[in-house]
Amino acid sequence: MQNYLHRASFYALILLLSIMHAPLNAALNIEIFGGGATRIPIAIVPFSAESRLPQSITTVVAADLERTGLFRLVDSLGHTPHEPEEIAYADWQSRGASALVIGNTTILPDGRIEVRFRLMDVAKQAQLTGFASTVSADQLRAVAHRIADIVYEALTGDIGVFSTRIAYVLKQGNKYALQVADSDGHNAQSVIEYTEPIISPAWSPDGSKLAYVSFENKKPVVYVQTLSTRERKAVANFKGSNSAPAWSPDGSKLAVVLTMHGGSQIFLINADGSGLQRLSQSSGIDTEPSFSPDGRSIIFTSDRGGSPQIYRMAITGNQAGTAERLTFEGSYNVSPRYSPDGKSFAYIHRHGGRFNVVVQDFARRQVQILTDSKFDESPSFAPNGKMILYATEIGERGILSAVSSDGQTKQRLTSQTGDIREPVWGPLLKSQRTGNFIN
Known about the structure:
The structure is a single chain. By secondary structure, the protein is mainly beta. A hairpin with a 6-residue loop joins β19 (297-302) and β20. The strands form 7 sheets. It has a 6-stranded mixed beta sheet, with helices on one face. Strands 1-30-29-28-27 form a 5-stranded antiparallel beta sheet, with no helix packed on it. 10% of the residues lie in helices and 44% in strands. α3 packs across α5 (140-156). It has helices at residues 4-7, 10-16, 57-66, 89-94, 140-156, and strands at 29-34, 40-44, 71-74, 99-107, 113-121, 126-135, 165-172, 175-182, 189-194, 198-203, 209-214, 221-226, 232-236, 242-247, 253-258, 265-270, 277-278, 286-291, 297-302, 309-316, 319-320, 324-325, 333-338, 344-351, 354-361, 367-369, 377-381, 387-394, 397-404, 409-414, 419-425, 436-437. It is globular, with a radius of gyration of 23 Å.
């Protein structure tokens, strides 16, 4: 099934909608290419008593910030301030640092760890922000991601997404697994594992559930699974193919692609599988729906004009309006996904024999090609819209990659064995933004 997304016909694509492959329980290694023209020089000093912890906090914070391409890490070797009064600002200025991260860790009698950090402005010799949290040992990576989020937000003005999760399908041998991992690929856990394909994972807006398509019963069926309880339900198991689930922004409904009346068309159902309503009405193949952030429209792939292109339809209640074609460059444009702000969308564009991630804005319809690899698929925006996760191939093996929405920074998330396909970036959760800010 390698490369079937791009090598098979569009009609075959609709039947399976991008089979995903990947290794079970494989760690991901991140390689970074490029970066912004002007990067923020920042020094991250190892926190006090950090060497006694099972997980280095500052290592995770540094890796998070570095892979954005927006920060340049300044060597902190030989300097160990942990409190503002211990900082020799002249030394850090001579090293070229404009921001400094310092902190403390304390192991409490009950085994939990108190983590405190401060972000300092070197030029102004003042604190920009600070944060404290008490966590268990297995939550150290999570608190490190939270610190990276705070630093990122303070220095860029944008929301940090290091505390989010990603999902993807992995294949090793004859086994498929739907996995969930931290945004940096660590802490991967299998949600389900089968010997039949699993495709099209989609996060619920609150991050508590995943919708996906399983072929375990020798036909594509859409399931919704609650992550905390592992409970799942078949929400679309109609005659023919059931595929390509997409959540509405409020989580109350799903758009799905069904062939119950013959061709592939887009339908709307309640999240529990009830209330089936047909949305698209065409003689072609309509598939891969994506809701706008306000829920008032969907974009989707259709070959109604003769070749696969991206269209948009307004939705009022359970009714859809007239479809408007959005893509006109080239004869193959698929897998559209709205940006979080609704101003643009990403998709896969065939260009010179390559299949690349592109972004197109709605207002000017300007198209920007972001990648230069050969076979890309399944673009998915980060919740802040700054990065796009996608699957690509290196040496006929599927891997995860990410590219900044301006194309300046690229990341390659590689694994030791197996194939990885069809990633999707999870939402930003309020529960991941807990803790106390300190002065």
